[in-house]
Amino acid sequence: MSLSKSDIAGLFTAIVTPFNEDKSVNFDALKALVKRQIAAGATGVVPIGGTGEYPALSRTERAEIVAACVEAADGALVMPGVLSTGYHDSLDAGRDFKAAGASGLMLVTPYYAVGSQDGMRRYFNNYREAIDLPLLAYEIPRRTGAALAPETYSALADDGAIIGMKYSNYDMPQFLASIREAGGKLAVLSGEEPLFATHIAQGAVGGVLASASIYPEYWLKIFKLASAGDLKSALALQYRIDPVLDAIYAETNPGPLKKYMGMAGLDMGGVRLPLSEPSVLTLGKLKEALAEFDGNLAA
Fold first, then answer.
1. Which are the catalytic amino acids?
2. What is the pLDDT of residue 87?
């Protein structure tokens, strides 16, 4: 599939990886989750990123998950995350996902051995040339310690290395500079629910959101309002879901999110090590958030 930046817009759900009781992948639940997202109006799904527990999955499992998502998406975009540390491991993953039918890849900025801006630019260029599949750069410096400068995004767009980016960063001045430098060349996607409406109003064309695994329709309402220029109404809706966000991100994602989904009637199983089940304190927050938000929806 040949994609351009104009194809990357709207809601992309960063989906959880459902597990059975023995912690094997629950492919039936996975396919149902993907179908639910597409039926709700999501442009596509992003499996096996951080929300999908990439580090806890084997290479074989990752490829099987992507193949199952492609089957369930029935033509909608499937953009799996590539979170491997090393270049060659990332290439192996990308080739597996391409063979499984992925529409493109969301490649995290190289981390642990963090390169210069020029080094990271060459990393993405070399990867794109080797893999021959559309790429989105995934920036999440609180996890990686690495961020691409706005000028680097612009250069990568000019190079033809990437068609978009997922911006998981709370640095608003940096976001605005990235929009200024590369917003006309790349599809900029928000990766931060608390800033989603604001990012859209400032030039992002969509988002990659984990909490859309449970509430895709709600986030699409926010997206449509913000895209239409009604930021005040978009923020009013976003504020109503804030207690849910506070609860599901109280501990490392996706442990609380999976538990919340189970409480809401969508059993996704537990998490794999090194993650663990949410604490008693977090469980209380999840129950309170679910009751409050469901009450808001019914109001």
1. 138, 166
2. 95
